[in-house]
Design goal:
alpha/beta; Structural Genomics Hypothetical 15.5 Kd Protein In mrcA-pckA Intergenic Region, Chain A; 3 domains; 5-stranded mixed β-sheet; RNA-binding
RNA sequence: GGGUAGAUUCCGGAGCGGUCAAACGGGGCAGACUGUAAAUCUGCUGGCUACGCCUUCGAAGGUUCGAAUCCUUCUCUGCCCA
């Protein structure tokens, strides 16, 4: 086992904020496995690279012999974390939450060691509470404390609504820390406030307060806003290898540097050609969530993009009922589970996005001759191979 | 409880009886350029086998030849006062 000082060095690497190093060191010096808490709300079923930053850190705790405590916020999901929101979020139904929670866990274990993870649903204690319990819980914090929070302050300043249930969120999340007796809580930097509330509540309850560990927020593919599903700027960890590779190749050079540090813990070599560095980054990420072979294949496909014959593409059988270009292209998008309206397709055609073996097809009404093996390019990311 | 302002297409936000599928900005998409990146420039951005037709402007009714625009009721929200 590593010494407390060594562990501290590893654990704080890549973090945005730790409150505080010395407290963490003291806890480590006790020589007992720490309980490292991570709370997730199953509001959206798919994990993406943004979530992976925190999960990777939690795995480091596991590797060092500590106990990961993964809290599935089946209860909190019903409230909806107001973090970063300018408006209240719509609540999910019980069924949606449970279904999301199941996929969530399954995906989280692509990163975490299942054997060393304790999973708890926070509904376990919150659903037991009576209204008077809730009142007592609320009595442990002040309104002023809650209003310290950026999100709330801003919304109030902008005359936007803040619903009372939303200010319960930090309290509820904080109480989780009391329930699981967390020694450390992990989260993105946007979770700082919530995690601090947990610390306060633990103190109030006479417990040793948890260490706050915040990890940087990963920007989405646009490089500006945080990675999130609703902004559609994410890379899902279950995405097909080719897709994952392509998405990473589409990021800017600046963003590549950031991804490299946050996702694979490596610095980009400034002497190397950025294109090569980006390919290597993409390959490493694909390898992590798929396999080395898949990464090699994805890289090969990418390099062979000019040579159409050598690339593996999804196959597409042209429809028999429609011979016009709009119909064909629309069916192709459907086959990729990415349906588009006829008007959208028409626009793509007129704007020159559609190519057959490299030739632009610009007339929506034309009825092109298709033969097996030809490549139909639909847009920047999507191409299909004609099959019989 | 009283007063007052408002709800418009993905978002913000014009429009205040016909010329409105609805200005403008953001976002998104496509093309050119490039390192099949970014930046930049240009175009597109409700639906429809489409020079036309259909459905939209919180909801439901009504006035009118004609309504996003006027009236009524309802639902929701902000602000001020209590």
């Amino acid at each position: 086992m590593k010494s407390p000082a060594e562990q501290l060095e590893i654990l704080t690497r890549g973090t945005a904020k730790v409150l505080s190093d010395t407290e963490l060191l003291k806890k480590l010096e006790k020589g007992k496995p720490l309980r490292a808490k991570l709370g997730v709300d199953p509001t959206s079923p798919d994990l993406h690279l943004g979530h992976s930053v925190v999960l990777e850190k939690l795995r480091q705790f596991q590797e060092l012999g500590h106990q990961a405590v993964l809290i599935i916020g089946d209860f909190t999901a019903q409230i909806g974390d107001p973090t970063g929101r300018s408006t209240a979020r719509p609540p999910l139904t019980r069924e949606e939450i449970l279904a999301n929670a199941a996929t969530y866990q399954e995906q989280a274990f692509r990163i975490l060691d299942q054997e060393k993870t304790e999973i708890v649903y926070n509904g376990k204690w919150f659903n037991e509470m009576t209204f008077s319990d809730v009142i007592q819980l609320n009595a442990k914090v002040t309104m002023q404390q809650m209003l310290q929070r950026e999100d709330f302050k801003n919304r109030i300043a902008k005359d936007q609504e803040v619903r009372l249930h939303e200010i319960q969120y930090p309290i509820v999340q904080g109480w989780d820390s009391v329930e699981v007796r967390a020694d450390v809580e992990l989260g993105g930097t946007d979770q700082l406030f919530n995690i601090l509330v947990g610390r306060d509540l633990q103190k109030t309850m006479g417990m040793e307060p948890q260490v706050v560990m915040c990890l940087p927020i990963l920007e989405g593919l646009d490089g500006v806003q945080k990675m999130s599903k609703s902004l559609n700027n994410y890379v899902g960890i279950t995405e097909p290898a080719g897709e994952m590779f392509g998405k990473i190749m589409s990021i800017s050079d600046e963003l590549m540097a950031r991804y490299a540090i946050l996702l694979i813990g490596e610095e980009v070599d400034p002497a190397a050609h950025p294109l090569e560095e980006k390919k290597s980054l993409a390959a490493k990420i694909v390898a992590r969530y798929h396999s080395e072979e898949a990464a090699e294949q994805a890289l090969a496909n990418w390099n062979n993009r000019g040579k159409l014959d050598e690339v593996e593409l999804p196959e597409f059988v042209p429809p028999t009922d429609r011979k016009d270009l709009i119909g064909i292209v629309q069916a192709a998008f459907d086959s990729l589970a990415e349906p588009k309206s006829g008007s959208d397709v028409r626009r793509l055609i007129q704007q020159g996005s559609i190519q057959l073996d490299g030739e632009k097809l610009a007339d929506p009404k034309s009825e092109p001759e298709l033969s097996v093996g030809q490549v139909l390019k639909l847009n920047k990311k999507r191409s299909v191979r004609i099959a019989g």
